[in-house]
Write a structure and sequence with these properties.
Helix content is 37%, strand content 21%. The chain has 532 residues and is an alpha+beta fold. It folds into three domains: 102-189, Pdz3 Domain, CATH 2.30.42.10; 193-327 and 343-411, 2-enoyl-CoA Hydratase, Chain A, domain 1 (Alpha-Beta Complex), CATH 3.90.226; 418-517, no CATH class. Strands 4, 5, 6, 7, 8 and 9 form a six-stranded antiparallel β-sheet that branches. Strands 11-12-13-17-18-23 form a six-stranded mixed β-sheet, sandwiched between helices. Helix 9 runs parallel beside helix 10 (300-310), helix 12 (418-427) packs parallel to helix 16 (486-502) and helix 13 crosses helix 16. The protein is globular. This is Carboxyl-terminal processing protease. GO terms for molecular function: endopeptidase activity; serine-type peptidase activity.
Length: 532
């Protein structure tokens, strides 16, 4: 098996480390003149690069040397100060803006062409009539197929200025001729609220995958819709959420806390503090709240969980969060690249810092994260190490701890078996998604006219499809043996079909069936009703 259990938590940890907590509203007072004052240390670096550029015996790409130098400097500061090269900057910016200008499709480079997985609901491509399974062969007369197809070239022709038009020639299975479809480019959302639906008549569920510029608006719209449908209790799912913008997290917290409740404290190296308070009437100040976190909930996710826990609002359910309590600010380097530099630490309302120690270097930092898989803390709350010196007390007398993540009020163990770890990884990977796309290529007509409710109630993954995927995974490059995981595997396959046909909400709804943390919520609600 080339994807071994021990590597999966490392991949997740690296993903979490990529999450940012940007201090865009912090007003610490370092002037530009102070930051960029000339000194001998900076001159030394500039002179070294010049010597290599002009005098070194061989030709050297000094741009790459600079990139390596910047990365090396930042890695010696802390695990979360990062360099964003020019070629990655636009995608990073789109991700945090929460939108991009384009036609609005998800696609694969399938064989030698662009295959549409699905047109984003409400986006320009969907409105123009693009469907899942379509092949885009030409964009404004430019060939978009062949062996030399490159993703950068594809996105360059499909993205563009807002309201500009692109003329597409599309192959659709069953049509004799290519279709001519004109699409006007618009802002296309990069959704950060993956799912929003009702678990019961009273309990709503919202899953947030990151905190971008648009997250609060997405969240607010989802919550209002659920309230209109009779929701009086909410499950906010922040599992595997790596963080994001500070102001988006603060706005969401403000929906749950009464005016003047402390949300967040940030402190820079000079000791200057900024405090953020709830400022307005939230839509769910009186509603019952559950927040789900796990070992991959980081940064702004921990801000939300910590602020609510310290204000005795709601119940935090799950496992100890990642432990990232550093604030980054993005700073341009003048050539299209940028850094996200740690400028402050944050503290929860009781004064807790939840940043894990990183003084022994990045390797030790991530080894500490991986120890959770061997020291038993993912299976039992009693195995979480806490220090009495980092004990804090909430206004209602609940004891909470600082020093490395948010410890939940109600612990739910993780199934750390190889079977479950592997399936969890595969279910959310492009590996299974690609297989499902190929399946739909052959069977898309079977689902024509079917809505999600009909799909949920009537479609069952066949033994044949399950065995096909087992063979595919065994003999594909991944070389994973999934035989013996039948029940969970069928659910994952069904969820991936739902995602490609109906979108991310359908995926989460299907995959959440029987979820341990959601079962814990329902169990607690049942106990609460019996007591009342």
């Amino acid at each position: 098996m080339s994807i071994h259990k021990k590597y999966i938590p490392l991949f997740l940890a690296i993903g979490v480390a990529g999450g940012v907590f940007l201090g865009s509203k912090l007003n610490f007072n370092d002037t530009t003149e102070k930051i960029f004052a000339t000194n001998s240390k900076k001159d030394k670096l500039n002179r070294l690069i010049d010597y290599i550029d002009y005098e070194y015996v061989d030709k050297v790409n000094t741009d790459s040397i600079v990139d390596v130098t910047v990365n090396g400097i930042l890695e010696n500061l802390d695990p979360h100060s990062v360099y964003i090269p020019v070629e990655d900057y636009e995608n990073n910016a789109d991700d945090m803006r929460g939108n991009f200008v384009g036609i609005g499709i998800s696609f694969y480079e399938y064989k030698d062409s662009i295959a549409v997985i699905r047109a984003i609901e409400g986006g320009p491509a969907a409105k123009a009539g693009i469907r899942g399974g379509d092949r885009i062969l030409y964009a404004d007369g430019i060939k978009m197929f062949g062996e030399e197809l490159e993703r950068d070239s594809i996105t360059k022709h499909l993205k563009g200025e807002i309201n500009s038009k692109v003329n597409l020639k599309v192959y659709r299975k069953g049509e004799e001729k290519l279709l001519d479809i004109k699409v006007k480019r618009k802002k296309v959302p990069l959704v950060s609220v993956d799912a929003s639906y009702k678990l019961t008549d009273e309990i709503g569920y919202i899953k947030v995958n990151r905190f971008s510029e648009t997250t609060y608006e997405e969240f607010s719209e989802a919550m209002e819709d659920l309230i209109d449908k009779g929701m009086t209790k909410l499950v906010l799912d922040l599992r595997n959420n790596p963080g994001g913008y500070i102001h988006s997290a603060e706005k969401i917290i403000d929906e749950f806390l009464e005016d003047d409740k402390l949300i967040l404290i940030t402190r820079n190296k000079s000791g200057e503090e900024n405090k953020t308070y709830a400022t307005r009437k939230g839509d769910f100040e009186k509603g019952k709240l559950y927040v789900l976190i796990n070992e991959n909930s980081a940064s702004a996710s921990e801000i939300v969980a910590g602020a609510l826990q310290d204000n005795d609002k709601g119940v935090i359910i799950g496992r100890r969060s990642f432990g990232k309590g550093l604030v980054q600010r993005e700073m341009a380097l003048g050539d299209g690249s940028a850094i996200r530099l740690t400028i402050a630490r944050y503290y929860t309302p009781t004064g807790r810092s939840i940043q894990r120690p990183y003084g022994n270097g990045i390797d030790a930092y991530y080894e500490d994260y991986q120890k959770r898989y061997t020291n038993g803390e993912l299976n039992s709350k009693e195995n979480i190490e806490v220090a009495d010196s980092l004990k804090f007390v909430t206004p209602k007398g609940k004891i909470v701890y600082g020093g490395g993540g948010i410890i939940p009020d109600v612990f739910v163990p993780k199934d750390t078996s190889v079977e479950n770890e592997t399936l969890e990884y595969v279910a959310r990977s492009g590996f299974m998604s690609y297989f499902i796309f190929e399946y739909l290529e052959e069977n898309r007509a079977q689902f024509k006219g079917m809505n999600f409710k009909q799909f949920t109630n009537n479609f069952q993954v066949s033994e044949e499809l399950e065995q096909r995927f087992i063979s595919y995974s065994r003999f594909n490059e991944a070389q994973i043996d999934l035989s013996g995981y039948e029940a969970t595997l069928k659910k994952a396959l069904k969820a991936n079909i739902a995602q490609q046909l109906f979108g991310p909400n359908a995926f989460e709804f299907t995959l959440n069936e029987g979820d341990a943390m959601l079962q814990k919520v329902l169990e607690m609600e049942m106990v609460s009703e019996i007591k009342n």
